Amino acid sequence: MVHCFHLAGFPKGLISCVTGKGSEIGDFLTMHPGIGCITFTGGDTGIAISKKAGMIPLQMELGGKDACIILDDADLDLAAANVVKGGFSYSGQRCTAVKVVLVMESVADTIVEKVNAKVAKMTVGPPEENCEITPVVTESSANFIEGLVMDAKQKGAKLCQEYKREGNLIWPLLVDHVRPDMRLAWEEPFGPVLPVIRINSVEEGIHHCNASNFGLQGCIFTKDINKAIMISDAMETGTVQINSAPARGPDHFPFQGLRDSGIGSQGITNSILMMTKVKSTVINLPTPSFTMG
Ligand SMILES: NC(=O)C1=CN([C@@H]2O[C@H](COP(=O)(O)OP(=O)(O)OC[C@H]3O[C@@H](n4cnc5c(N)ncnc54)[C@H](OP(=O)(O)O)[C@@H]3O)[C@@H](O)[C@H]2O)C=CC1
Ligand SMILES: O=C(O)[C@H](O)COP(=O)(O)O
């Protein structure tokens, strides 16, 4: 990547890529007095860096618990397709993955049935075989995900598929009847496990979304655009998608999270502004000039 910058004409030394274990060089780099700003994409590490950064300007793109709110007037085929795409693509390992489905009770059975039908067809295995669901990034990540599933199961949630794991490979799992006392309602699995919370009012959905530590993105499925805009305004997240799964979008599009999901906003213009500092120089002339009004 740095070579590409050099080929594009960047002077040598203007951009550097320093490699090494984050735990060894991370603090040295982020707390070095020569650092003018820090931009970081990740999860808890970003929160730790922010706490140590003091007066250094920050741009943080961190975790998410993106909610998919499905109303009873939604196109349920469209909603189910987006729940699957949003929840399970890259095995759920995207900050913008759908991480909780908040569906009106009246259409919940239909949504769960439609999603289950699609989950049943997903291919599971190694990435070399182009499978849709592949192993999660580390064993500790798989253990964490398993902990969330077992907590929900013990507290009475319904596993729609058999829970299956081989090493870091976890089979896609929809967990229905999740309630707010379960960890899965709030924590980010970052894997192919998707909780469904059945709601009885739009307000309940908005409340759950805004009570989360995270506030990255969210989405709403309804045919009523006025209602969608009203809910979008009430959702305290960086972005809301109407009738599509959350997604970062093209790089010039503003991308930001609230609360533990981030600080600042990415996007070409926003990032340039964040990485530059306004500087004023005032020339005081010996005699008044016309520009001095
Ligand atoms: N909002 C966004 O744009 C995105 C957010 N995410 C979020 O990222 C999370 C998953 O990513 P994950 O990698 O687990 O996140 P982590 O917060 O665990 O970050 C891990 C990274 O931080 C490095 N690191 C470790 N210690 C330090 C330190 N002291 N200073 C600087 N860097 C350090 C690690 O390096 P090493 O490996 O060498 O130890 C590794 O590269 C999820 O929450 C996900 O939602 C993911 C994608 C996009
Ligand atoms: O790495 C991520 O998870 C991305 O920032 C999200 O991008 P996407 O929504 O386009 O996958």
UniProtKB/TrEMBL annotation:
Record carries keyword DNA repair: no
Domain Aldehyde dehydrogenase: 1-280
UniProt GO MF annotations: glyceraldehyde-3-phosphate dehydrogenase (NADP+) (non-phosphorylating) activity; lactaldehyde dehydrogenase (NAD+) activity
Enzyme active site: 61
E.C. numbers: 1.2.1.9
Keywords: Oxidoreductase
Transmembrane spans: none
First-tier enzyme category under EC: oxidoreductase
Catalytic activity, as annotated: D-glyceraldehyde 3-phosphate + NADP(+) + H2O = (2R)-3-phosphoglycerate + NADPH + 2 H(+)
Similarity-based family: Belongs to the aldehyde dehydrogenase family.
Protein name listed in UniProt: NADP-dependent glyceraldehyde-3-phosphate dehydrogenase
Taxonomic classification: Eukaryota, Viridiplantae, Streptophyta, Embryophyta, Tracheophyta
